[in-house]
Amino acid sequence: MKPETFFEKFDLFADAPDAVAKMRELVLQLAVQGQLVEQESAEGDADALLKAIAVVRRRNGRRKPSETTEAEEVPIVEGWHQLPVSWRWVRLSTVGDIVGGGTPRSDNPDFFADEGIPWLTPADLNCFKAKRISSGRRFITKLGLTNSSAQLLPEGTVLFSSRAPIGYVAIAGTELATNQGFKSCVPYVLETNEFLYYYLMSAAPRIDREASGTTFREVSGKIVSQIPVPLPPLAEQKRIVAKVDELMALCDRLEAQRQERATRHAALARASLARFADAPTPATLNFLFHKSCIIPPADLRKSILNLAVQGKLVPQDPNDKPAADMLINIEADKKRLSDSGELKADKKAWVNSSTNPPHDIPESWCWVRLQDVFEISRGGSPRPAGDPRFFGGTIPWITVGEVTKDSGKYLTGTATGLTEEGSTRSRFINPDDLLLTNSGATLGVPKVSKIRGCMNDGVAVLRLFHSFNLNDFGYLYLTHQTPAFRNVNQGMGQPNLNTPIIAGWFFPLPPLAEQRRIVAKVDQLMALVDQLETQLTASRTTADTLVEAVIAELTEQY
Fold first, then answer.
1. Are β-strands 166-172 and 132-133 bridged in parallel, bridged antiparallel, or unpaired?
2. What is the pTM assigned to this prediction?
3. Does the pLDDT at position 289 exceed 70?
């Protein structure tokens, strides 16, 4: 099988998310290992090129490169096949001068200009797709060049970023300079630059692994100089580059087709979601999925919840008692319990609480605040953390991590526990209490507890104080509100969903009978989405497997 066959059969595995990226990697791998084009005896071997390089080095006053060592005569890169007999292993410094860069003092306005010598940083190569680059965001003056360690690099230099990040590669399209984030190669024989460009692209991940530093990784000029390079005869290099250019252009076209298809799919997905909103039934869901497979499961789940909390998922039944009747009973229970001291007074609502409900609801529903129908409390954490007097007991200890460790609805157990003494410094929750994480990056995640235990101060409890079971619908609504809860804390530093915010949060209250129908419908549709997602995952896994099989077959044939 030839590499071109991959492109001819691309539709078979187009669902694999990284199919094009893997093909690019394979093309580079075959190219730099001498497996992309056939060797031609008339082109001789790389020794002639090395002699031409030696002539240029002597003319430039460079020292003669050391003899090829035994270690350089064998493939140095793990997993490589034996090089073609006409190729030679050399070091990068054998075929080009390794040149660093520098930065003029930024406080001197005479060193920078709107026009002048193009001066590149690695950031200029971020998302840069072309082979050649002629300028970046900034220019320096001749004075800036002479008063810094930056050097003027000739056109055709192979630029290689050595930090922040490691591995960006481009060819200088004109004379330019770089900052110290580059260790660039000025080829002694200019015509080798395009093969070196592709080789460094292929080798970049391995070079990155050899970098030093933890918080700020960098490869030194010495490391870059010692990079092993498989060197083909010059004529073969040109044929390799032409073939890589041809195949990379095919990859570009495939990527453009995928992007165009993704744009069309996004538009179709919006239309399909609108159709689902008009008829949110399993039949519609199945039809849309199997006809197009264009709606991401996450979007379907979001749409289902949107419809549910707006009263659009199931029809209203005129025989249902309106929510206002239920609310009268809840308010009576709340007054009775407050008067007897069994229920604490309402929290003072958050000062930024909205006065306008977020959306319209059916006439039989009511907008309330969460504290109108739930008693809201925050947990407590014994201090100091880990003290054996408080921790290590048998009383379930409910933390943010316990609530968020899976996407299920119910909390059925915990990994750690409190002692009896520790429980006196926390707060108990009961089975069927509604929990909500209120701090950290995972705030706003609800759970229905099935156990009695203690919760830490990163979890709040929403407890019913009346006989109406609102927990199942409440769980759906809080799940729907998770993104809104997190938006409240943007720009506030440490995320924290305090009880006044929760207490004043709007809550749409449907009739109790309708709540049960909504929950049953959501469960039915979510289960179907789970099945569809499993099918989609299987399809993509099959596509990934096909990609790997084709790549393996291509690799084995060379």
1. parallel
2. 0.61
3. no
